[in-house]
Design brief:
60 residues; mainly beta; five-stranded antiparallel sheet; 1 helix; globular
């Protein structure tokens, strides 16, 4: 799956703030994601992100 820094992704489970949308800040073995609702940042392993992704929006 081709995911790049700056992409907006929608995950299956929502963040406690209620948002499903996340911005990709870092890629590698782990992803750094920023919640679009509350701007909380988390590090998640690549396999979990790729497994739980629903939708991908690329800013061109």
């Amino acid at each position: 799956m081709d995911i790049y820094v700056g992409d907006m992704i929608k995950l299956k489970k929502k963040h406690p703030c209620g948002s499903y949308e996340w911005e990709v800040l870092r890629i590698g073995a782990d992803f750094r994601l920023k919640c679009c609702g509350c701007e909380h940042q988390v590090m998640i392993p690549r396999r979990l992100v790729e497994k739980n992704i629903r939708n991908l929006k690329r800013d061109l």
